Amino acid sequence: MFKRHYTLVALAFLASLISNSQTIEPIRYGDMEQWVTRNIKESKIIGGKTRQVYAIGPNAVIDGDEPYKGSGNSPWATSNVMAKVSGITKTSNAVFPEVRPGGGRCARLTSRMETCKALGIININVMVAGSMFLGKMIEPIRSTSDPYSKMEMGVPFTKRPTALVYDYELTIPPTDERIYSSGFSRQRTLRGHDNAEVIVYLQRRWEDAEGNIYAKRVGTAREVLSHSTDGWQNGHRLHIRYGDITAKSGYRSSLGLIPEAKSYYARNSKGKMVPVHEVDWDSADAAPTHIIVMFSAGSGEPYVGTPGLTFLVDNVCLEY
């Protein structure tokens, strides 16, 4: 009788643990073990070298300068791109696969200057902060203007995770300077070092009859990582908050709705890239239609960065 009683108590305790336990769900290819290597030959006028441009997806090698449209149903895109400007093929790569100590691979996001010189006709320096995000990059890039219009930010998603979980290591050079360089404008030095940044936005989107896309913010998580780490920080957890958080503890303006001038873009039902107008906060129990997740080796405006800032990321998951 006593034995049966203790067994029932133990089973009840285990059931309680299970019901209260957290579920970790990896994002597809978020273990960073598989990569696509694109071998792209740049135009002869800028040297004609073959450069490697990496994408997160099933292991493969692609030769040639065809626009990359993703493979293996990978939800990930990066700031790595092929550009064709004034008839010149140029590549940019600031996200790389890297082997972690002890084995296995991770993503290395770094800030670096991309240079393009062509017989005195074109002389471009562009500061690139390596980033990876859920969505697509639209190739080929034709100009450095309006960078968000070249990125399809977010993927369809209807769940309600409690946190983004990932491993990371961060190295920020000991400098108090950032560089702004967009290519054709004058390069400038700005005060203060840059930071790494992680964003999670859950949105409920809809489209009107004219093809305009609107969204309400369902869930929010954003953090700035401003200090170098002493090795890897494993299982780091970024909590997601739901509904209107403007009156909640810890709210700051950077967590607010996306300003109209900085709207992310998406492809509408007519096949056109249009801005996503984030118009309001949604209710705390609303179901999202899309999720935006982005990791970046910079937290400032486009074309701003601290050269050498390196953000290593691995094992990206969602917690429920």
What does this structure look like?
This protein is mostly beta strands and 320 residues long. It has one domain (77-319): Jelly Rolls. It has one helix at residues 2-20, and strands spanning 24-26, 35-41, 50-56, 60-63, 76-78, 81-85, 88-92, 95-99, 105-118, 122-129, 131-137, 151-153, 155-156, 163-171, 177-180, 182-183, 188-191, 196-207, 213-225, 233-239, 241-242, 265-267, 273-281, 290-296, 304-305, 310-319. The strands form five sheets. Strands 5, 11, 12, 13, 18, 19, 21, 22, 23 and 24 form a ten-stranded mixed β-sheet that branches. Strands 1, 8, 9, 10, 14, 16, 20 and 26 form an eight-stranded antiparallel β-sheet that branches. Strands 3-2-4 form a three-stranded mixed β-sheet, with no helix packed on it. The two termini are 38 Å apart.
Helix tally?
1
Summed over residues and divided by their number, the pLDDT gives a mean of: 91
Number of domains: 1
| Helix and strand run | HEEEEEEEEEEEEEEEEEEEEEEEEEE
CATH topology: Jelly Rolls
CATH architecture: Sandwich
Radius of gyration: 22 Å
Specify the structural class.
mainly beta
Q: Please describe the biggest sheet, giving its number of strands, its sense, and whether it closes into a barrel.
A: 10 strands, mixed
Low-confidence parts:
1-19
N-end to C-end Cα span:
38 Å
Q: How helical, in percent, are the residues?
A: under 10%
Strand content: over 45%
